Amino acid sequence: MKFWKKKSDTTSKDLQAGVNRREFLTAATATGLATASLGQSSSKAQAQVGRGVAVGGPGPVVPTEGQEAQEFDGYSAEQVDRYFVKNPASDFMVDVIKSLNIDYIATNPGSSFRGIQESIVNYAGNSKPELLTVNHEEIACCMAHGYFKGSGSEKVMGILAHGTVGLAHTPMAVYNAFCDRAPMIIIAGNHIDAGARTPGGTNWWHSAQDMPKILRDFTKWDDTCHSLTHFADSMARAYQIATTPPMGPVVIVVDADQQEEEMPVRRPQIHRRPERTAPHADANAVREIAQWLVEAELPVITAGRMAHNQEGTDLLVELAELLQAGVSNSMARMNFPNTHHLSVGSGAIGQADVVLGLEVGNPGRTRQDARVITLGTAELFLKTNFQHFGKYYAPDLAVAGDAQATLPALIEEVRRLRGKISRSALEKREDHWRETHLATRRRDIENARHGWDASPVSTSRLYGELWQVVKNKDWAMVSNDGFQSSWGKRLWPMTKYHHFHGSSGAAGIGYGAPAAVGAALAHKEHGRFVVNVQKDGDLMFSPGVLWTAAHHKIPMLNVMHNNRAYHAERMIVQRVANARNRGTAESSRIGNTIDNPAIDFAKVADGLGMWSTGPVTDPNDLHAALVKAVAVVESGEPCLVDVLCSGR
Amino acid sequence: MINKQTSMKTFGALLMVLICVGPGPQLSAQSEEEGYQLWLKYQCDICHYNQGHGKASATSNPLAGTLLPFEAFSALTRYPGNRMLPYSEKELSNEDLRAIWEYVRRQAPSPKLEDIPILVEWLEALE
Questions:
Q1: A336-375 burial string, b = 16+ CB within 10 Å, else e?
Q2: For A7-18, how does the pLDDT look when each residue is reduced to its tens digit (9 = 90+)?
Q3: Domain match, A464 and A607 both
Q4: A439 CA to chain B: closest CA distance, Å?
Q5: Is B49 on the interface with A (CB under 8 A)?
Q6: What CATH number did the domain enclosing B11 receive?
Q7: ipTM over 0.90
Q8: A382 and A453: one domain?
Q9: What is the pLDDT of residues A62-88, one digit of tens each?
């Protein structure tokens, strides 16, 4: 397929084609401009789109007769219509994407979306959306996942995936996002019309009758678009569905040929992006919840994927303080400051006579006589094949509604009824939970000393040394510390929503590194100092993301938790061998260790264009290495410090 | 594998140790390096780290510098209760177990909390 211009003389046939085309383009442009103008009246977002003018793109060009004659020389009328499109439909598609406030699109290139790709670059100037180059579609989806959480649930990233072969690289990452309730918009190319496919061409392999089927078990919605109107409608609908709790990924399929066709005379409407609202719980149910909480002797709140942003964290603090209720935070989100005197462990749930579960499937082990309330959006999932919902738990009161959205009404109701709680009862609860909180914190700090001087470096020492270099910064920890004995959550004072982003969702390995890079991108605009404690096994799923971070200059401090193994599995297999009384020596290494040869992660990062140092084996060398790394991050670059660590 | 009977055996063994064992047996002639290699061979490092400082669970104590006599150490390995799954004599000989014990009890224990400024800083922030 050739797109270059030839300078030889034109033929009458081609000239005729050019004249017809010019007339068509003129009409299309005039109509399009009128439509865009009408559409601008009621939306700020809308005002930024339309014919590329507002975004600095060149907009449509109406060629002179002489110019067109030159361009089309040597091509048949059919070829001219096919290739020499002056006002391509994909420009319109990019305007639709812009209307949804999508700043980034992560992609590994594919010819089934080349029209959109070219439009993003040459029509939209590669700005809002900007293309992020990734080396694997799983990286793209994990980045989108982390980006959403890093943005405080404000921003959705797009993904451009090649038909079949690109989309088939996404499912694990999409499943994680689905379980973690993180929206993303995946735009997949397809060659819908079999009659238009090249005989024997690769586009047969990159086509499918039902492209989104690959992901349908763990996406909220999908659609395959057959026209530009269809695309504009479905993208707006996709955005709305994806970002309405319970949030989740969506898929839109676009036809490769349609992207490269001429814009129709009547430019389809681009919709306004509506303000999102989350489903609120029923007002009577809210009153009932408040009544139960106020009447409780020792209420406890447990929170899962509850807070969408800082406001959610603040609201939960307000509710907990009104009731002096202990809060057990699963840390799937930063729902509650871990420094607060009401921050307690899951053991508190077993003490409560009333338990309020916010966006949790199962509130945990409760007293036999406890009254349990669940408030959340889990019941609003329409379908699922995968069993992420967990074992059914029968609460005494199940209320459907987004927990954060419902908290203001619940707080108001609790405040109205709070006079029924005696001052002495509130003081007693406060003392009780403060004592519990402080005992846990002291025990955690005491336990951190074990192995402090050991080599390989203990994970508690790792977090201790890291804290020394970030404590005076506006920091964000974008990794989960579950495989590091949760030292981050146990030791670091986490008070802000952006201090911690929770886990992958489905406990799928390979999420960590790319999600951290996506989150770091979101934090970049706020100037936050991003820390990623990176598991070695996880990084080896998609080490290419280090290159993406370097290429796009995403500042972040990556510190390797390099234990040269899928260590949790070593522990598990060792238990099995011991239980079977055989092979207790060595057997847990096979299939689980990442050694012989040991991976030199500093070299890996260096080879991918990232400043790096290590491996650090002596804990006393760690501080100096981290100080150097911090300087790199503060210069606007990512870096990596490889640290040989204890197992967990 | 782990049942009430096993737990009782553990308890009984420990009790016997406390009653009967004095200052402990003579040190083995095996070198520290040999003990370390056995420590790694039997995967002790998975939970207890390379030098035995790991605190594998809320109920366990680090083993580095342990004062446990060999009999108690052995009893905890053979009948660990819920702390871990047992190592039988078939899998781990008494000779190797003794070498492991020799290794781990010679390791320096972790520093005290008050000697670690970072942790002291966190502790003081609680007050």
A1: bbbebbbbbeeebbebbbbbbbbbbbbbbebeeebbbbbb
A2: 332 333 333 344
A3: yes
A4: 10
A5: yes
A6: 1.10.760.10
A7: no
A8: no
A9: 556 555 555 567 788 877 777 788 899
